[in-house]
Design a protein that fits this description.
The complex is a heterodimer of chains A (326) and B (259). Chain A is of the alpha/beta class and 326 residues long. Chain A is built from 8 helices and 18 strands. In chain A, α5 links the parallel β14 and β15. In chain A, α3 crosses α4 and α5 runs parallel beside α8. Chain A starts with a strand and ends with a helix. Chain B is α/β, with parallel strands linked by helices and 259 residues long. In chain B, strands 9-8-7-10-6-1-4-5-11 form a 9-stranded mixed beta sheet, sandwiched between helices. A two-stranded antiparallel sheet of chain B has the order 2-3. The longest helix of chain B is centred in the N-terminal third of the chain and has 17 residues. Chain B is globular and about 65 Å long. Chain B starts with a strand and ends in a 5-residue tail after the last helix. The chains are: A alpha/beta (326), B alpha/beta (259). The interface between A and B is large, with 97 and 92 residues. β10 of chain A pairs antiparallel with β12 of chain B. The structure holds flavin-adenine dinucleotide (FAD) and adenosine monophosphate. Flavin-adenine dinucleotide binds next to α6, α7 and α8 of chain A.
Chain lengths: 326, 259
């Protein structure tokens, strides 16, 4: 019987939405293969959060904890994940392509002696082979990939897999584990997290982005738009704005920044360079606000407004607020 | 301070990518190649460490075909001391695990205090080889690094890395493997004297048998395709800002249904 496993990410005391996305996809795969779906949770909250995964179709949750797993550390968490995989030998393992996933997945995969199909936006089965479709060259083209080793591991881009409830009474099994302390690793000295609850660009459903046309570091118009859209919206930037020092590096969208796939991308004062388009071109809906009618961004935008963003955005915010207040 | 920099040559970010008719890859004719931008940050950081400690070496490790020589020479012109060029037909299109195995085998023959990789190569976009290399060398990994501060005794380093929604500061024993992130530094350009000097710097060329390695692919590509074509939608031009804004906000709700 085929075994599908997911690795669920815990953040700030909760399971991340991506864990439910993976569970839903894992369930679909397990059903097509006639197999069962398990999940691995690591850390002090693993056991207490485990039952929640049952809602999205997980049959069994393997919970792992150890004193060294109190907070995330790439080496120890990768050891824990690889340990469960070796013990339970799933055929397929799914991980989220989040900041956390990008750190743990390659290390865990290397411990298992395999590579993984990273950043998939959809999956299909060819017999028992998992085929992952993924953007390459930051989305300038796509390719389907398969993993030849065992288990077949793939990571999924946040926000693209559809969550579907499928309530099961998830069994929780605690897996005994102790870290191999011979492996040296770093120690965390400080963690400074934005407490405003801003979603990461790669996980945001709506992105309001500003470029050189913003003319300076005052992004309050865009911050306002994002806050009207709500907590799943965030602000991004072009490289020109980042290089000018107006926005932090982590806000850069594009081929050498973040590749994003929100439901809605609003580009303000961004011309639409090839590198920028590569990073946001697969957004579901694109709105462009630019004073230059020739700007290349208009050729990709579903809705374009030709005009001065400092005149258009305030009106846009007003309209949006009125609409959402209804 | 001895740094080993793993560097990949990739198509220029300006490249208009086209999938080849057979769907097995992209059309490579006419492509201009550059150093992977994240690996360029690595080269720069390694040079700064050597300058800071007024001693040491920067070795460039690059796996690639003949044309990769150009990328290695560019790094040497920036100031790196020597290159190791692993060239083997079996490594063309190698997956990240095979790449990490190759880098690890080559790294074992080199003395270093720290290894730099890019957090991701901007062609394949895997973002795996750096952490895999760390694991295969049994060294700590610090990924997505934006700041490196090496202690005077070169036994530890303090680093800043990007994490979701913020920054983490870590202390790591050396040697370790770092993956570079944007924000680490501004890479320098090669100077004219640098370019002249680079011509005389050594590049050691090796194949898999010289590394005593045989490799087995862990990933396989099936079919390449172009993304769905995106065409221009509705453009609101010559309208008063309130009217244009209203039209688009309404369309987002009623047509696109995203609001
Ligand atoms: C190796 C490499 C990697 C790169 N990677 C990236 C990347 O990852 N991401 C990225 O974004 N770029 C990247 N770039 C840079 C890219 O080539 C462009 O330079 C950059 O995207 C331009 O940013 P921009 O659109 O904000 O600025 P510009 O191209 O200068 O465009 C500004 C736009 O604002 C409009 N404007 C000005 N004032 C107003 C106003 N008041 N109201 C409305 N519109 C206004 C103008 O009409 C113009 O279209 C990279 C470049 C290189 C060489
Ligand atoms: N062909 C190569 N030669 C040298 N280093 C490489 C090569 N491919 C990948 N790397 C290193 O691994 C990093 C991540 O690559 P990837 O996993 O392909 O995204 C790159 O930034 C390089 O530092």
């Amino acid at each position: 019987m085929a075994k599908v496993m997911i690795y669920g990410e815990i953040r700030a005391g909760k399971l991340k939405k991506t864990a439910f996305e993976l569970a839903s996809e894992g369930r679909r795969l397990a059903d097509s293969l006639g197999g069962d779906l398990t999940a691995v949770l690591v850390g002090p909250l693993a056991e207490s959060l485990a039952p929640e995964l049952g809602r999205f179709g997980v049959d069994t949750v393997f919970a792992v904890n150890a004193p060294e797993l109190e907070a995330y550390n790439s080496e120890y968490y990768a050891q824990a994940l690889a340990h469960v995989v070796k013990e339970k030998s799933p055929d397929i393992l799914l991980i989220s392509h989040t900041m956390h996933g990008k750190d743990i997945a390659p290390r865990a995969a290397a411990k298992l002696g395999v590579a993984y199909v990273a950043d998939c936006i959809s999956f299909e089965l060819d017999g028992s082979t998992l085929v992952g479709k993924r953007p390459m060259y930051a989305g300038k083209c796509y390719a389907k990939w398969v993993a030849l080793g065992s288990p077949q591991i793939a990571s999924a881009r946040p926000n693209v897999l559809v969550t579907a409830e499928n309530p099961k009474d998830a069994k929780v099994e605690t897996v005994a584990f102790s870290v191999n302390a011979n492996r040296r690793t770093y120690t965390t000295k400080d963690l400074s997290l934005d407490t405003t609850g801003k979603v990461d660009l790669t996980e945001a459903e709506i992105i309001v982005s500003g470029g050189r046309g913003m003319g300076g570091s005052d992004y309050s118009l865009l911050e306002e738009m994002a806050s009207i859209f709500g907590p799943t919206a965030t602000v991004g930037a072009s490289r020109a704005a980042v290089d000018a020092g107006w926005r932090p590096h982590s806000d850069q969208v594009g081929q050498t920044g973040k590749t994003v796939t929100p439901n809605l991308y609003v580009a303000c004062g961004i011309s639409g360079s090839i590198q920028h388009l590569a990073g946001m071109g697969s957004s579901k809906v694109i709105v462009a606000i630019n004073k230059d009618t020739e700007a290349p961004i208009f050729s990709k935008a579903d809705y374009g407004i030709v005009g001065d963003l400092f005149k258009v955005v305030p009106e846009f915010n007003k309209e949006l607020k009125a609409l959402l207040a209804e | 301070m001895k740094s080993l920099v793993c560097m990949k040559q990739v198509p220029d970010t300006e490249t208009l990518v086209q999938v080849n008719p057979a769907g097995t890859g992209i059309v490579t004719e006419g492509i201009k190649y550059i150093i992977n931008p994240y690996d360029e940050f690595s080269v720069e950081e390694a040079l700064r460490l050597k300058e800071k400690f007024k001693a040491g070496e920067v070795v460039i490790l690059c796996v690639g075909t003949d044309r990769a020589t150009e990328a290695i020479r560019t790094a040497l012109a920036m100031g790196a001391d020597k290159g190791v060029h692993v060239k083997d037909p079996c490594l063309e299109g190698a997956d990240p695990y095979v790449m990490a195995q190759t880098l690890a085998a080559a790294a074992r023959l080199i003395e270093f205090d720290i290894v730099f990789c890019g957090h991701r190569a901007i062609d394949d976009d895997f973002g795996e080889a750096g952490a895999m290399l760390a694991e295969l060398l049994e060294l700590p990994q610090v990924t997505l690094v934006t700041k490196v501060e090496v202690a005077a005794d070169k036994k530890t380093a303090t680093m800043e890395r990007d994490v979701e929604g913020g920054k983490e500061t870590v202390e790591v024993p050396l040697p370790c493997v770092v993956t570079s992130q944007k924000g680490l530094n501004e890479p320098r350009y090669a100077s004219l004297p640098g370019i002249m000097k680079a011509k005389k710097k050594p590049i050691d060329v090796k194949d898999l048998s010289a590394l005593g390695l045989t490799v087995e692919a862990k990933l396989q590509t099936r079919a390449y395709a172009m993304p769905p074509v995106r065409t221009a939608g509705k453009k609101f031009e010559g309208m008063e800002p309130p009217d244009a804004a209203k039209a688009v906000v309404q369309a987002l709700r009623n047509e696109a249904k995203v609001v």
